[in-house]
Amino acid sequence: QVQLVESGGGLVQAGGSLRLSCAASGSIFSFNTMAWYRQGPGNQRELVAAITSGGTTNYAGSVKGRFTIARDNAKNTVYLQMNSLKSEDTGVYYCRFYYPLTPGSDYWGQGTQVTVSS
């Protein structure tokens, strides 16, 4: 089992910045992926950014150049630096942890609210 604790959400004006953190604990092994997803009002949950334990990253097109995902493997923590925030970035942001080579090994955080006011 893996437990995820997210922090860093809040209210920010358009053009501002926020930094999200997600700390994983429990039975953690190598070759894992950590990611951020978000769900805006009336929308489905979507991938924002992901990073493997080897440092390979993947971003949604809508956040490229504005958001940066990073991780500290020693702390089992993933970060999402969000700059130049827009109102459409508003939503609940969820942290996900999984082992790509192990089907069913999928863990989610409880979510943190990000609200961008225009």
Summarize, please.
This protein is mainly β and about 120 residues long. It has no helices and eleven strands.
Mind explaining what this structure looks like?
This protein is mainly beta and 118 residues long. Helices cover 0% and strands 55% of the residues. The chain contains no helices and eleven strands. It has strands at 2-7, 10-13, 18-26, 33-39, 46-52, 57-59, 67-72, 77-82, 91-98, 106-108, 112-117. Strands 2, 4, 5, 6, 9, 10 and 11 form a seven-stranded mixed β-sheet that branches. Strands 1-3-8-7 form a four-stranded antiparallel β-sheet, with no helix packed on it. A hairpin with a 4-residue loop joins strand 5 (46-52) and strand 6 (57-59). The protein starts with a strand and ends with a strand.
Give the N-to-C terminal Cα separation.
40 Å
Percent strand = over 45%
Task: List the quaternary state of the chains.
Answer: single chain
Listing every helix as H and every strand as E from the N terminus to the C terminus, the arrangement reads EEEEEEEEEEE
Mean pLDDT: 96
Low-confidence runs (pLDDT<50, min 5 residues)? none
Largest sheet: 7 strands, mixed
Helix tally equals 0
Structural class: mainly beta
